[in-house]
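Work Package 3 (structural annotation) set out to generate three-dimensional models for the target panel prioritized at the project kickoff. During this period the team completed the workflow that converts sequence records into discrete structure tokens, so that structures can be stored uniformly alongside our sequence database. As a representative example, we reproduce one entry of 428 residues exactly as it appears in the project archive.
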Amino acid sequence: MEIIKYPAKALWNELIRRPSLSTEALYGMVKEVLNRIKTEGDKAVIACEAEFDQVALSSLSVSDTEMAEAEKLVPEVLKAAMTLAAANIRKFHESERFVGRKVETQPGVMCWQKAVPVERVGLYVPGGTAPLFSTVLMLAIPAQIAGCQEVVLCTPPDREGKINPAILYAAKMCGVKRVFKVGGVQAIGAMAYGTESVPKVYKIFGPGNPYVQAAKQLVSLHEVAIDMPAGPSEVEVLADETSDPSWVAADLLSQAEHGMDSQVIVVSISEELLHRTEREVERQLACLPRRDIAAKALENSKLILVRDYAEAMELSNEYAPEHLIIATKNYAELAEKVVNAGSVFLGPLTTESAGDYASGTNHTLPTRGYAKAYNGVNMDSFVRKITFQEITEEGLKRIGPAIAVMAASERLDAHRNAVEIRLKPMEK
């Protein structure tokens, strides 16, 4: 890992550039696949599965028998861990429920909001080099709490046409009844357009590789809503001389092992800490089963030495990381200065892995700097807020003249007339 000392602000943008492949470069190929799904339905999905996942499928649906078999294959210790995680995720997201209240903006003018669930949602769960059953919990639990009527889950099968048992067990835990053996671009297309087997949904959630992200962006232009732009995983650690280099290194590698295009960064006021962290990364990397993936990701990563905490926070807010770990002695103070981040982990014991699995917060988060404008998945992601208003005679008398003046000033006479035609009888 490269140690960069006191970089000038003019170099920051280049320094924190993400290594991920631009999704725009993939649009041509992705559009072609999406068009096939849109016109040919299941036939095209099955053909894409054969081409991209090297699996011959006769049916896209996961059967009740397969769901029952999967439950038997999941070890009891994992079931217990998933139960604990699910309870925490549910408890946290229950706290996000919207409670509307009526507001009388003027006497006789009452306004309020009502939260209603998105009726049909599609969840995409990657299953490539790592079967992310935790993502099922992160997406399906808030969807269930929100009251979404139909939840569709797509995840890629292996070459035998099987889904990882833990993914299916997680789906059953969360009440997801419609699971399909579809991955990649074809999964996004199937949920966006609908096929003979896969229902069309109104909003698609979930992480994925650059092809999946390109597909989500394209279908969001015309067909469905999506949760957020998201790409390869990333973490930034803010550290000082009190930070434990072995813990910092472990946190870096926990993200680096996600994929070769992941990025990890340390920003520190201590040069010694950076050198010790570098040595720890090398030592721990050698012991990892996914060391080849992590090693490739580390090529995109940085160890950055800054002058003080203020500069560290300024650089961090410019980077806008998906995950931000503040492992400094004054972490509580620095936490107040966070402006741009997906999820923040405070203090030496708060590993990012906790948020990935079981603390309760959601791990579906904005990457590539989108934390400057987007938040992670939460209860609001699965609901829409509809505004209501009711106006009495007194209320219309109070605001009607202002409405008429504003409408006339915008030269929208029909708008003005809709108010004045109601006001006129009140003058008698």
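The chain has a mean pLDDT of 95.
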